[in-house]
Please model this.
Amino acid sequence: MPKGSKRGNGRRRGLPSGSQAIVCSACLMGVPCRYDGRSRPESRLLAVAARRVCVPVCPEQLGGLPTPRDAAERRGRRVVTASGRDLTAAFDKGARAALNAARLAGARVAVLKRGSPSCGSGWIYDGTFTGRRKRGDGVTAALFKAAGLRVLTEEDL
Ligand code: SF4
Model:
């Protein structure tokens, strides 16, 4: 599918041309910031980072959560761990910090990790910790979209 074209769901794929900075999930750039202490480097994003500024952000770390940390999922407006610990405030704080970083960099586009309760865009896990998915966005992806940023996942590159 050519760059900039639309998927069946109407979502545009591909980064816009130009040299404008983009903001990216830090785990996709090789930073070991995931809940399990690992990273998920994405070779297509690393290739992009070789030719334009990519600002890595990890909203969950920016919200003050440790690494490694308990897995969390969105349950309605809240974000909770499997044991029921409410992490909503940390997720909200991290989303605001990530948006601030995007604005400081002048980024209008973000490439965020799919499925994450922070970074996921289009689908996330359903809050039951059973691996089931639902339509929706992570906290940061939702805030970015509300602020007018275009949000892509690593699969859209
Ligand atoms: Fe990656 Fe986003 Fe999760 Fe941080 S919050 S580990 S950047 S998916």
User: Anything to note?
Assistant: The beta strands are 22-25, 54-57, 72-75, 78-81, 109-112, 123-125, 133-135, 150-153. The radius of gyration is 15 Å.
